[in-house]
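#help-structures
NK: newbie question, is this the right format to request a structure? protein is Penicillin-binding protein
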Amino acid sequence: MKKKKNKIDTRYKLLVLFMIMIIGIIIMRLLYIQVYKYDEYKDRANIQSRRFISEKAPRGKIYDSSGSLLATNKQTYNISFDETTEAKKTIFKTLNNVMKLLDENGEKQDDKFGIKINEKGEFYFDFYTSDKSVSSAKEIRFKKDRGFYETVKKQLYGKTDIELNEVQEAAINEKLLSISAKDCFYKLLKDYEFYKMYVTDSDKLKEYASKPESEIANELLSKNSVNDLRKVMIVLDAIKMQSFSGFKSVTIASNVKRDTAFIFNQKISSLPGINVKIEPMRVYPNNELASGVLGYLSSIDSTKSSRYEEKGYDISSDLIGVSGIEGAFESVLRGSTGGSIVKVNSQGRKAEELFTLEPGPGNNVHLTIDKNLQYSAETMLRHQLEYLQKGYSESGIDTRNATRAAVVATEVKTGRILAMVSYPGYDANLFSNPKGITTELSNKYFSPNLDEFGNQYINNRGLGISLDELFPKNSSGVREDKYDVVPKPFYNYATQGLIPPGSTFKPMTSVAALEQGVVGLNETMVDRTEFNTHPETFGSSFAPKDNAYHGVVNIRKALAVSCNYFYYESAYRMYMKNGANTKALNTIAEYAWKAGLGVNPNSDAVASTGIEIPEKFGKTYSFEDFRAQNTLYAKFDLVDFLGKGNYNNTYYFAPLDIAYNGSDSEKVKNIKKDIKSVIEEKLKTVGDKSITDGLEQLKTKIKSLVSELEQNSDVYKKNISDFNSRSSHKNSPDLVANAVEAYLYSKNTSIKTPAEIINAAIGQGINNFTPLQLSMYISTIVNGGTRYKAHLVDKITDYQGKVIDEFKPEVLDRIQMKQTTLDAIKDGMEMANTADMGTASSVFKTFPISSGGKTGTATFREDEKKYGREAYGVYVSFAPKDDPQVAVTVVIYDGAHGYLGSPVARAIYETYFRDKLKKENPNYKPVYMDTQEYYDFTLNPPLEAQKDKIP
């Protein structure tokens, strides 16, 4: 027994000794940490409890020319979440409580999450764009950022650390696009550990980590609505995305009511991680006014995140200007972000402020736009479009699709833009307010239902075409608006809509004709309904028509009544006078280029009006530009007739497919490319060399390439076999070469034809310009020939009003013209507005201020009515006649007649000259052209001035 007792005592002593050793180690460790390493661990604790709380700077303001606010800021309350250890433990409970509070107070959660759920409970992607290629790129980026790339890479290639080539990367992208929105949502439910809403046991958690995504999703959906899960996912996803760039707050709801913010502050202690912040939000006091000029704000596209992070942007929450002045002057308007470095407690709330950096407001932009002129232009344009859509009728004319238009008013002697309208517009407030864009608005703006729109469009107009003809599907199966019938709110029709000018180009032809001396100031011509008077030059079949018979005309009357024959003859005379060669074809263009209607393709001139926002810049007809266009389109001609095996129903051969085909071998692709290149290079020499120069060598090269294709393409071999079995003669490379030769001779003739300068003289052919170009060209002519740079910005000031930069009128070019030339053109344009025969006299005849105008009716395409389209209605104007100050251009898509836009120009003049009209013509009362009802908004502009007031 004693032996046994000693054994127990020994064990006890050993256990005590072991316990003493453990306690000693713990004490030594505590002494090491709390005494020896005290300073180091204190610094670590301080760093981990420090947070930088950013404070957004207000954007610079945008003013009109009188100092009235067009864009400003207001302070708003935002609900945000800051992730901490404690907040993370209760995140699901916290977020559910937050969502409940938001719902109870009628607030909406911020929602830019790419996965949406429709009314039927179906998942879909929405990336706020109607461009399929852009949408696909954003979808791929969305999935890559959330870890789908690594999963797919492993599925396809086994390893995730191997370097991939372009083909393999493309395969991954294709696979990523095949993952449905529903599958993405289910995977994120698992990745973001939604099962922790109900499971806390560690063993159970391990079990859920290996469960299939669909099983977890179904379990969650049995206890929660899909929309409630999505609300929480929006926040968790934002936390995940922001984790890549360090600690940052996640905004849950923006611009909440003050009462809502107060309620959240009352309950803040029970909502770990939740804070109420005050931040500036962009506001546009006049809503849609000048939206095409101002632009709008949007979140930073993930595909551009690196670029903006380098500039100091918070890509998770900062908004940037993406169009208009907001986009073009982003670096000017953007302020410098401030904030505080603070110590936070376990709930993520500020315990101590360590350092503060005040935010710096952005600089202000002062525009040349006059808000009253802008309002008059937009209001009258809207009235005219409603009239055309509902009430206008004329035999054979259907203007129900007059849903798009543009207006530009310019200061003739400076180039300042006084008003610029692109219709339809949008309310930019919807985009600066995170709650502004609903699913319905998103679909309307970015994903219009072309099936629904198209069927309604076809039925309403009784068109004899199918939906597939109106909106054909591309290779991806997505419908495209090929015939431009759908209104596009974010497309600036004023600066980017290229349209044929029609007869509004005739003042330009008048300048050239008078300065060239091919017509006299008082010379008369007898109008003819067909221009067939020079068959020796144009051939017996060339006979373009006049729009009507106008009797005896001189240059003034020709402008007033828009006599085509006069301008056909003027162009013919210029062509003959200058040598009747390809250089002579540029006679009108030499003058047009100086007025900003295109640029000389052989010069280094900048193709721009100079305006600060994005624009397109159209071309006037010249031989070089026409040749370049024909060369560009030649590849489509070649693909067409070679693919059919038939050129002009004269040359027959085995169908030769030279279109791009992804399944072709590299050898076949290169042969096809060489066939097109050889012919394109030949077309580039038309006019410089005889078509016969090097033609035999070209044919030899074609035959060689065709033979090579036969050897390498099984498809072409089969086509040859089929052709030989049904044709009376055998296929050979010679047949193809002869067809190409015939094609080249035909193109040589059509490229060099003088018929094109005849078309150009009346604004047809390849003449295409933006409304901005047209307004600047009219300004150039009526001010005596000085072309000014177009500009929208007068000056930049800082937040205290100090001028930082100022923009003065800048001369870009000059047209040398005699005073008699200028006077004759102004006379003719005045007659167009006031004489009984004038094309716009029904609107301007009784207007007290002298003015000049020119109407234009330019076809969209020859078969436009098949697609429910009508001609563009174009109107250019200036006032007053003797001392022009303002020039106006109005373009109405499917407007049918130019004069139907003239009331918009008159409305602008009524506002611009309102003081003069009230003083000198107190009884003047403007009336609508359709109802003859009086209106007052132009003489007494209703918009209140917003002078640095927060609305």
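mod (FA): yep, format's fine, and the tokens are attached above. Residues 369-425+486-615+767-951 form a domain with the Beta-lactamase fold (CATH 3.40.710.10).
NK: thank you!
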